[in-house]
Amino acid sequence: MFDFKMDQNDVHQFTWMSWGGILSPWGLVILTAFFVPLSLTSGAALFATFVSKAVGASVFEVPIVRSAAKSGDPSAELTKAVKAGTLGRAGKISKGVGLAVFAVLWLAI
Question: What is the 3-state secondary structure (H, E, C) of the chain?
Fold first, then answer.
């Protein structure tokens, strides 16, 4: 987790930082799709890993950012999400998506 100083920053700064963390992994997915040979098992594994990480970050972060924008309290929203088990759920979803993407690519090889 980043050392984001909740008491020294506002919800807009939290939102910008969060969207950077959400969109960056998707940038890796796009770059990998264009520049890595997905016809190789290693390329398929790398692509599936990046998709998995991007999905995990999105599933965890997007609801927090949206809730923080409404409430104005990012710290409270982050705490609620962690206590509600959102991080574990995001991990399970991302692993499932990663395995499914790898399986589809592997079958296409």
Answer: CCCCCCCCCCHHHHHHHHHHHHHHHHHHHHHHHHHCCCCCHHHHHHHHHHHHHHHHHHHHHHHHHHHHHHHCCHHHHHHHHHHCCHHHHHHHHHHHHHHHHHHHHHHHC
Q: In angstroms, rounded to a whole number, what is the distance separating the alpha carbons of residues 99 and 36?
A: 18
Show the tokens assigned to 45. Answer: 């594994």
Residue 8 has pLDDT above 90, yes or no: no
* Orientation angle between helical segments 41-71 and 86-108, nearest 10 degrees: 150
* Interatomic CA distance for residues 100 and 49, integer angstroms: 11
As given in the structure block, the two tokens for residue 49 are 């890993």
Instruction: Give the global pTM.
Output: 0.91
User: Given this model, what pLDDT does residue 41 score?
Assistant: 97
Q: 109: number of CA atoms within 13 Å, CB side?
A: 15
